[in-house]
Amino acid sequence: MKTKSLIESFNYAVSGIMYTLKTERNMRIHFIMAGLATLLSLFFDFTRGELLLLFFTITFVLMAEMFNTAIEKTVDLITEEFRPLARLAKDIAAGAVLIAALNSLVVGYLLFFHRLNPYTNLVLFKIKKSPIHLTFVALTLVIILTIGLKAKFYKGRGTHFQGGAVSGHAAISFCVATIIAFIANNMLVSTLSYFIAFLVGESRIEGRIHTIFEVVSGALLGILVGILVFQIIG
Question: How far is 119 from 17, CA to CA, in rounded Å?
Fold first, then answer.
């Protein structure tokens, strides 16, 4: 019963993210910028602290936008009439998003400006080749793209967490298999990795959570992102 409740909690949480992403233009802008910032981080020699600062900033902005949306919907639920306090609540929530966005600009300036300086252009081509960094970025991009595709093409069948237009489980598992194949450089290990990923995808079809097309789409997404990050960029 506890497991079911945990899964339901994930479903509700993911549905909230999807709703905000589909209905709020600013959320979509933040989401795209988050993906671009994550991808751009591959081209710079960031320290672990700088990476933490970047991802905390991204999380802060997305959370602020979601809180703002939640407050707006709560106010609309209580009253549809114009009331000064209702407007004030929405303005304060919007102000919180503005502060988060301004903070992200400051962080972006501090992290990227000196690296984009004409005197340090060579840094732009010094790619961080750490397998840990590449793996983290690849998985982050897969998750961002999966959520974006689910929000764009979701047709109301099942839930966002258990269903949707693209299998997130297949995307992540095949991305991990691709990463293992690049790092291990061993045919047996690579084959076993893809076999496990295949079993994950098959279980999603067997459980009637995803169609074959959705699982194949997720698998291709994971493989392509893995190849992009490790082969083309790394």
Answer: 41
d(CA 130, CA 102): 31
Q: Longest C-alpha distance within the chain, in Å?
A: 67
pLDDT of 158 above 70: no
C-alpha span between 60 and 26 (Å, rounded):
14
Q: What is the pLDDT of residues 100-143, one digit of tens each?
A: 988 988 888 888 876 666 544 444 344 445 677 778 888 888 88
Q: How many CB atoms lie within 10 A of CB 3?
A: 7
**Of the residues 50, 65, 80, 206, which is catalytic?**
65
Question: Which pTM does this prediction carry?
Answer: 0.60
d(C-alpha 214, C-alpha 166), whole Å: 5
In the Cβ-directed half-sphere of 157, how many Cα atoms lie within 13 Å? 12
Active site residue 65: yes
Phi/psi-derived region of residue 185, left when phi > 0, alpha when psi is between -120 and 50, beta in every other case: left
What distance in Å separates the CA atoms of residue 84 and residue 145, rounded to the nearest whole number? 40
pLDDT score, position 122: 46
User: Under a CB-based contact definition with an 8 Å cutoff, are residues 68 and 96 in contact?
Assistant: yes
Which candidate, 185, 182, 181, 211, places its Cα nearest to that of 197? 181
3-state secondary structure of 163: strand
Place of tokens 């689910």: 150
